[in-house]
Amino acid sequence: MGFLADALARVQPSATIAVTNKARELKAAGRDVIGLGAGEPDFDTPENIKAAAIKAINDGKTKYTAVDGIPELKAAIAEKFKRENGLTYETNQITVGTGGKQVLYNALVATINPGDEVIIPTPYWVSYPDMVLLAGGEPVIVEADKSTFKITPEALDAAITSRTKWLIFNSPSNPSGAAYTEAELKALCNVLVKHPHVWIMTDDMYEHLVYDDFRFTTPAQVEPSLYDRTLTVNGVSKAYSMTGWRIGYAGGPADLIKAMAKVQSQSTSNPNSIAQWAAVEAISGTQDFIPKNNEIFKARRDLVVSMLNQANGITCPVPEGAFYVFPSCAGTIGKTTPSGKVIENDEDFVTELLETEGVAVVHGSAFGLGPNFRISYATSTEALEEACTRIQRFCGNLK
């Protein structure tokens, strides 16, 4: 009998973290590496949010809090949902965790029984399937259209069985940046209305990062009849440049929120008290910096899409949101590098790109859809331009 849990054999380490760590190792060894693997804004946390954290420290707000969030933060989140999404939640319907990842995991652990199925559209954030597996469930992968990165209502309907418990829905998407229009989302919701045993877990982490007049909507907003079986998940990491503060949150049915708090009470207990007070200011304070940051992100997106589409064998769609592009490298498969290595799949492509040109990206098959790769453009314009120049050179040298 082995010492480690059998469940660990079902899951893989995070591919995005692995790429970031590899880039760091190469940099430490003296290599000139541009890391485009991490989904982390390069902007600093806004001053008003940092000031709120400093005030919390000075005011002695450094003790244990309620397990799933201080009342002030829950009230701010409830007001945010009402103001921005037209959703009404009482504070007992709000949970706060140590990042959105913990909130998602708490929900799965609190609800999944052996044999329960969770529908996950591709391309998906790398952690979704493994969190389902750790919770004892079975991921059911539904492949999206390879040009739009969106699933159809027909594909969703076909994936639902009597054992389906959840649909995990992420828009705008990590890794593709694709976002569902209100009409596209309504069509998916119409399918879910027909299957009252299926719950919806929405990952809205990139809600505020949308471009070109795209209007964000979330399932319980588009189809109110789904409200009682929807967990609407969000957080402060991306739009507020607060990745390291580790605050995620969700609104949902009170019984589910209570069950999630029970899980959290026996794992981490409360999120960091200082970060919670900073999150109150982030959600309730000025939002003026968000459109300014989005203009910078949009310019970076347009640069990256343009330059990648000039690389031999690369095709890059224009994403509606987030800060990722998910180009296809299908045109490079079967080609040979100057060193004699044949590119057989997207993992070969990103490995050779890192070794040859010092550009760290994540292979698309880690997100369930290939041959593609993910680039995060949440870094400086200069670094992105240099990275895309190197990708062009790498592809140009393939034979």
Automatic annotation (TrEMBL):
<dbReference type="GO" id="GO:0006520">
    <property type="term" value="P:amino acid metabolic process"/>
</dbReference>
<keyword id="KW-0663">Pyridoxal phosphate</keyword>
<feature type="domain" description="Aminotransferase class I/classII large">
    <location>
        <begin position="32"/>
        <end position="391"/>
    </location>
</feature>
<dbReference type="InterPro" id="IPR015422">
    <property type="entry name" value="PyrdxlP-dep_Trfase_small"/>
</dbReference>
<dbReference type="GO" id="GO:0004069">
    <property type="term" value="F:L-aspartate:2-oxoglutarate aminotransferase activity"/>
</dbReference>
<dbReference type="GO" id="GO:0030170">
    <property type="term" value="F:pyridoxal phosphate binding"/>
</dbReference>
<comment type="similarity">
    <text>Belongs to the class-I pyridoxal-phosphate-dependent aminotransferase family.</text>
</comment>
<dbReference type="Pfam" id="PF00155">
    <property type="entry name" value="Aminotran_1_2"/>
</dbReference>
<dbReference type="InterPro" id="IPR004838">
    <property type="entry name" value="NHTrfase_class1_PyrdxlP-BS"/>
</dbReference>
<dbReference type="InterPro" id="IPR015424">
    <property type="entry name" value="PyrdxlP-dep_Trfase"/>
</dbReference>
<protein>
    <recommendedName>
        <fullName>Aminotransferase</fullName>
        <ecNumber>2.6.1.-</ecNumber>
    </recommendedName>
</protein>
<dbReference type="InterPro" id="IPR004839">
    <property type="entry name" value="Aminotransferase_I/II_large"/>
</dbReference>
<dbReference type="InterPro" id="IPR050596">
    <property type="entry name" value="AspAT/PAT-like"/>
</dbReference>
<comment type="subunit">
    <text>Homodimer.</text>
</comment>
<keyword id="KW-0032">Aminotransferase</keyword>
<dbReference type="InterPro" id="IPR015421">
    <property type="entry name" value="PyrdxlP-dep_Trfase_major"/>
</dbReference>
<keyword id="KW-0808">Transferase</keyword>
